[in-house]
Each structure stands twice: as structure tokens, then as C-alpha cells.
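[Automated response] Your request has been received and processed.

Submitted sequence:
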Amino acid sequence: MNWFQKSINITSSKRGFEIITDQILRQVPEIKKIKIGTLHLFIKHTSASISINENCDPTVRKDLENYFNRIVPENMDDYEHIYEGLDDMPAHIKSTIIGNDVTIPITDGKLNLGTWQGIYLCEHRNIPNNRKIIVTVNGIKF
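Generated structure:
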């Protein structure tokens, strides 16, 4: 069993849900060398999250953003943590709900995702950010 780990950076384009599958594959070419294994992604932030969801229809990403903005609104009077802006505490809540890691099977040098699945960077702050993701690959090489 082989293990590999590195840190990669992904810059969010704006607040919302962005498919980053291709960026992951470009920055982690080691996946191609794995016959069978797993890819683990851990985002090192408390105001962004990572998830797997629909990779085809962009309205899914828009609907997710709209939904999370409704259930976790900004400008609530009872937020105490507002030092970094009105979007900061809602970002922490959204990150807690969605989560900070995903694990994906690797089969024959490719991510074994479903036909309509993609990896999402869920940016919960209003401005673009440079997000650090720890990538861990383990598996049997070809």
C-alpha cells in the first residue's frame, strides 16, 4: 500500500458552489498511478467547505447557494462573532453543516465518481479566497 500527501491551493472565484474536480486532477496527477485506492480531501478553513454533488446542471449550484442563504442568513441580531464581517458567522455555520472533507475511491487511475458527481468547493464568504486543501492518496499502484 502506497501513501502520498500534499497541500494544494484553489482560489474561489466568488461566494457559492464551484466544481473543482478538474483542478484537483490537474494538481494531483499521482491519482493516475493508483490501480485501486482512495483520495481524501480536507479543506483547512472554517468558512468554506467541500462536498460532492451534481456536476452537470449549474442551477443545482445556484439553488444550493439560495437555500443555504435562506436557512443561514446574514445580519441576524444574535450573531456575536462579527469581527471579520457580517458574512463570517454564517460562513462558519454553513461550513459546519456541509463539512470539511470527502473521500473518493480511485479505480484504474481515475476517480470513481458517479456519472453526475463532481467535487465542490463551497465558498461561504462574499469575497474570493485562496483555499488550502490537504490531499491524501493511498492505494496500490499499477
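Summary generated for your ticket: Residues 8-31+45-102+114-134 form a domain with the Jelly Rolls fold (CATH 2.60.120.460). The mean pLDDT is 96.
If you did not submit this request, please reply to this message.
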